[in-house]
Design brief:
- The chain is built from 1 helix and no strands.
- It is mainly α.
- It is rod-shaped.
Length: 66
Amino acid sequence: MTAPVLELEWETITRLEKEVAEMGAALAEKDSVLAQKNAEIEKWRSLALGKAQTSHSSKRPKRWRR
């Protein structure tokens, strides 16, 4: 079998619309994954900052007077 050599304008438009829709779906999926990762990073950051603040406040070194 042979592939068509010429592509009609409406076929080109249909093909490109399908490609754009597929790219949009892939981008939406990546945005969703990125949002989940950012939420996870913020959770760990807040936990780390919470531990750092409590450890610094309880073990603050005394200042020496001259």
